[in-house]
Amino acid sequence: MVTIQIKGRITEEGKLEVDLPTGVPPREVQVTIEIPADEEELPWELRPWTAEELAELSKPDPMTGAEIVAWLEQEGGWEDDGLSGAEWVEAVRRKERERRGW
Fold this sequence. Notes:
Blueprint: E1 8-10, E2 16-18, H1 51-58, H2 65-75, H3 85-100
Antiparallel strand pairs: 1-2
């Protein structure tokens, strides 16, 4: 695979404008966009994880069986949706497939 790095511009209409070097043959390509921006400008869900956040998320914090049961009783479960456990799992899988476009 050949990689070409060029600068481009995204217009207000959502179009990508680039000037390709001469001699690039016509064919289907994969485009990766890196947007340099101040992290404060990005919505939080698009901001990269910091090393501190990753370290915190990597710490094990297991619950005991009693804590899990108490949490489930407090939060409710799939029974609140009128589903069996198997139906709930299948609904979660279906939603994930739809979200990912599979």
